[in-house]
Amino acid sequence: MSPANIFYAIILAGAFLAGQSENPVWVILVIAALATVARALDPAAAATRAAQGKKLARALPLMVFNQIIWVNLVFLIGLGIFWALDAPVVALPLWLPILVSAVGLGGAIAVSRKG
C-alpha cells in the first residue's frame, strides 16, 4: 500500500467518523472535495491518467463523481453503525471529521510534493 493510499484512507476515515457522529450531509461534499484533490495530486493516479491519454481537466468530472460515491459509501457505513446502536459510538463535534480528512489531505499533498 502506497503512502498516498494510506492518506486517502485517512480521508475516508473522516467520512466514517462523520457518519457515525450523524453529521449533516454537506460534510460528505466537503470530504469528497478533499478526496478529489488528494487523488488529483496522487503521482500513481497521474501516471494512470497519462497512460490513458487523459489530462486532469478531462478526468476531473468522473473523478469528482467517483469520490462522492466512495465518501458517501463510507459515510453510510458509519451512519449504519449509528442507526444500529441508536447512538453514536463516540459523540464528535462537527469539525473533527473534517479535520481528520484535512490531515489526510495534508499528508497526500506532502507525499505528492516529495515525489
Give an account of the 3D structure.
- The chain has 115 residues and is mostly helical.
- 82% of the residues lie in helices and 0% in strands.
- The protein is built from five helices and no strands.
- The chain has helices at residues 3-20, 26-41, 43-52, 56-85, 95-114.
- α1 packs antiparallel against α5 and α2 (26-41) packs across α4.
- The radius of gyration is 15 Å and the shape is elongated.
Topology:
Layout: H1 3-20, H2 26-41, H3 43-52, H4 56-85, H5 95-114
Helix pairs in contact: 1-2, 1-4, 1-5, 2-4, 2-5
TL;DR of this structure?
The protein is mostly helical and 115 residues long. It is built from five helices and no strands.
DSSP summary: helix tally: 5
Rg over CA atoms, rounded to whole Å, is: 15 Å
| Strand proportion | under 5%
Overall pLDDT metric: 92
End-to-end distance, in Å? 16 Å
Summarize the amount of helix as a percent range.
over 70%
Secondary-structure-derived class: mainly alpha
Low-confidence runs of at least 5 consecutive residues: none
Order of helices and strands: HHHHH
Shape: elongated
Major sheet characteristics: none
Number of strands: 0
Protein traits:
115 residues, mainly alpha, 0% strand
